[in-house]
Amino acid sequence: MADHPFLLACRKQPVPHVPVWYMRQAGRYQPEYRKLRERHTLLEICRNPELCREVTCLPVEQLGVDAAILFSDIMVPLGPMGVDFDIVESVGPVTHNPVRSAADVARLRVFHPEEELPYVAESVRLITRDLHVPLIGFSGAPFTLASYIIEGRPSRDYLRTKRLMWSEPDVWRSLMEKLAEVIVRYLRMQIAAGAAAVQVFDSWVGSLAPEDYRVHVLPAMRRIFSGIADTEVPAIYFGVGTGELLPLFAETGASVIGIDWRVSIAAARRRTQGRVAIQGNLDPALLLAPWPEIQRRARQIIDEGLEAPGFIFNLGHGVVHHQPPVEVDTLRRLTDFVHEYSADRIAESTRVTARRDEP
Ligand code: 1CP
Known about the structure:
The chain is α/β, with parallel strands linked by helices. Helix content is 49%, strand content 11%. Helix 8 (142-151) crosses helix 10 (169-193). It is globular.
């Protein structure tokens, strides 16, 4: 498993083809998932290792992707911290007891995931028992998790979150530290159970100015990545709209940075000074476009990705939930295209290098 293309790319080592997986590759666009969701809530699937295995592995079989991602939600570890939440249909995570004061933060419990979330480790063990590609474990990042528990629901502008950050910096720091500690423990549990890589989702941190990110978020991110560094599994850090934050992302200690479609791969490499591998960045809306347009844009991304070592093809954000849905066939075709086109390009450049080296 150590020399699987996905893990090689994470470590910026040579690959036979560009590895590919998709954020939200398990979800509503799949008829099988929609069927399962008629009988089970999202959290029921997360808590049941057999169902979790089924949903996690389905896209690997259906799409032929190079990695699986544990089926769960970023809210899961907040439950044992004392956050009372639901995942509401067509809304997302809703917190019934939002965290808005020093006392609210003081009440949050830093717990032992092995004791309180044993089903997550059990799912990882069950999934990795016969999975033939690496399993990515994951967690939400402190800022993005804080945004859900402070706002109480999905937000557009994060006004309460930013107000707390600026007006009570000590309370904010304590919240970031508690979340970071829980995240380190939670990721370590997934790695110990068999996750071959982890991704930390900071979906909404792109709402911050670089100065605010540096002061109010970066310390917690460094703590997270240094807290799992000894495990030596690749750590991917992803956010949306983070173009201006990328130089600071390179200082977090993550080994791979996930970018969206608003920033080019070349710019991302420059801004991170080539220190990390890059993952991305097809606009997920393109999956609703005609195939020739998808193919044209995928080709551009692969060409750019291959200009330096360390590239993983992905979307710039998750597969969209749309009516009519993204077709499973489109993602299958895209996966095959990424593999075939990149393998040809890599084989060609290897031949050119070999010819050049001839005496
Ligand atoms: O039942 C459903 O289908 C509802 C949609 C859904 C799904 C499929 C939710 C509610 N969560 C999930 C699973 C999930 N969540 C996965 C596993 C699927 C996979 O990748 O294959 C992952 C990795 C997440 C992580 C997650 N949850 C993020 C980070 C990634 C991202 O998309 O930015 C975030 C922000 C959430 C919160 C959340 N949970 C659900 C929704 C609809 C949302 C977003 C709400 C919002 O817009 O703020």
